[in-house]
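User: Please check token order:
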Amino acid sequence: MALFSKDKKNEHYLGVDLGASGIKLVELVNDKTHARLMTYGYVNLPKESRSLLEDPDRASDLLKKITEKARCTTKRSIAALPISSVFTSLISIQKAKEKEMKEAIAIQARKLLPMPLEDVVLDTTMIDAESGEVASETTGQKGWMRVLITAAPKTLVSSYQTIFQKAGLELLALETEVFAHVRSLIGKDRSTIMLVDSGIERTNITVVEKGIPFLTRSIATGGRGVTEAISRTMGVTLDQAETMKKDIRSLQSTLPGEDLSVILDVLVKPILEEITYTFQLWKDDAKHMRTSGRIDKIILTGGGTLLPGLTDFITKRTNVNAYLGDPWARVITPEKMRPVLDEVGSRFSVSLGCAMREIE
């Protein structure tokens, strides 16, 4: 989703992720059509702090401090909108002249949106009805076309604009987290992939086929929920549970006879149930959406997916190979920084995907 047009006059770009747990930021430069890391920075919020979007002054102050501390060399920024705050839907319209198709999209959008069309910023991605590729020229052709519509409340867009303006940054574009994830974690891979992004409060599950996010679901559980489950099960404080979560095998040692998969079954039960449900939903809707109905692989990302043994556990439970996403794989980075970047990498997939948007 791009709410403002592309502009490649400046080759340095900031990707910014304003999340529930804090802010993640990267600066990339276009190095002969490849993205190269210049700098990065992040700040974690206290557990019970207000959302940054509800406190724009604090958000802009933190953002400004991060850019200064990271010694960013550009103010040109791209940010991501949270999936849970954005409406998406797949519709079908008849191919026609551009004006007629816009009118047809508006008519269907009014029926589907949970708020008046005048109160949202609407973005559309045209998908060829037969090949599944993003369409180019469609005017004057017969037949039908699928259209992915994405709508963000104007109040949300305004909040982002205010935060970046107060931070002294130029906001070039806004897009949804899922498009940033596709760019940083999937790239040109055309297979059908389930993205599981587990943050501190929410887990977003998206099915991407040939680079297009067809199905997205969001549930209110994430890394914090896992910590709370350990706290309840073991009768320890949340801080102790957070420590145990990072080394789940130490948790296993306190429960003699318990298999690691049994422990993970308890800790990630809501997420696993949602993954299973999304599998079935994707299969059931294949004919309606004209998609494959299968899942080729699962990519895990976000701080909530860093549980030891989670990829193997998901693979066994779904019979589909699961991998921990590496957003740095498509970025040129200093070799000496790889150990540090690998440790924090999964948390930066959104900010990296945003910065890569202007370099592709």
In short: The chain has 13 helices and 14 strands. The longest helix spans residues 269-284. The radius of gyration is 21 Å. Residues 86-152 form a domain with the Dna Ligase; domain 1 fold (CATH 3.30.1490.300).
